[in-house]
Amino acid sequence: MAAGWSTTNGAKPGTGADPSTARAAAEHFLQALEARGSSANTIRSYRTGLGKYLAWVEESGHDWRAPSRGELRSYLAILGDGHGKRTIAQRLAALRSFYRFTTRQGLTPGNPLAALATPRQPRRLPEVLTIAETERLIDAAADQGHAGRPQDAVGGAPREGVEVALALRDVAIIETAYAAGLRISELASLTVGAVDLKRGEVRVTGKGRKQRASLLGRPARAAVARYLDEGRPVLAALAAARNARSAGPVAAERSAPDLLFLNHLGDGLGVRGMRYRLERLRVAARLPEGVSPHTLRHSFATHLLDGGADLRVVQELLGHESLATTQIYTHVSPARLRAAYTASHPRASAAATIERECRGATPAADAASQDTEPPRDGRGDR
Which of 91, 320, 336, 382 is catalytic? Predict the structure, then answer.
């Protein structure tokens, strides 16, 4: 792979401390990440981190191929001035991955960061919505999906029809995100063909271009079906009409006929557009600040665990490679922890028996009360 590299001075990367060789190696590393299916956010973050590091190496006159431990500590000190622990950890992760790559290519003698400790980050528990808050967000989407849309944004189509289409789309977005636990990038890249409403399944392309199947409950299937029947054709017609007026390769490039969720112009609704819509709906639903598309994914996992789902099933649905990543949701699922404790710990069972006796309840009456199922509101199988 390294044999095909070239630099401005014609030297092969790794043959000297020339900064151009470092920049060429970094560029090829980023290309390898892209070929491997790394996300655009990861590549952007790594590019920023590597660029700043190599600029520091060049300004300091160090050899990028084998920086000393003291030199790296100096760089860490610079990073620590004005950057949080998360940013420092991300920058170090980029450098470690870069040096592993250059070592495999024979460009560096080893990974100089191998023995360098990463600053410990505080473990932050994810924010989740309650079931009632999720319902409020869905209701806000149905009521407010068209709020604030400018008059000239409907492309000449009847304004009322476009408003209804946008409301149907917003409901379908939130129902799908909550029912399937999707990342916002996965949601934005969904195609019409990826959704099987009869089977209640959606095929998702996640991180590293890995595919998985997630599920849709009845409310989500109904919301997507109505959007496909009544909402999406209205939005798609806007793009078709615009392209007919301005035919050509540029107009054709703008169209996104296969994407599931379209914007108010009939083009694909991107990640930024989805974030913007959810923020407006959050305000309309009077939910706390900080609620994001990923909050719905956190809520999906937590509510599944609260309902008794197996942790490995949740791992599979979320697309996590490691079970350790999924285990964080056990810390934000107090109902599941309490149920597991009560069912498993001998003193917890004894305490429950004593409490029942103090209340004067008999075992038979207690069992009968547990056989009575609470009423359901029809949304329990999202």
Answer: 320
Q: Which of 65, 91, 169, 183 is catalytic?
A: 183
Cα–Cα separations (whole angstroms), residue 339 to 135, 177, 328: 25, 27, 17
Q: Does residue 297 carry a catalytic annotation? A: yes
Q: Rounded distance, CA 54 to CA 22, Å?
A: 7
Q: Give the model's pLDDT for residue 102.
A: 92
Exactly one of 207, 242, 280, 379 is catalytic; which is it?
207
Asked if 175 and 382 touch (Cβ cutoff 8 Å), the reply is yes
Q: Is the domain defined by 131-331 classed in CATH 1.20.1420.30?
A: no
pLDDT digits over 130-175, tens only? 999 999 999 999 986 444 444 444 444 556 788 899 999 999 999 9
Q: What order do you get walking across the sheet with 195-196 strand by strand?
A: 195-196, 201-205, 211-215
Distance CA 241, CA 91 (A): 46
The yes-or-no answer on residue 207 being catalytic is: yes
What CATH number was assigned to the domain covering residues 2-104?
A: 1.10.150
Of 264, 282, 297, 382, catalytic: 297
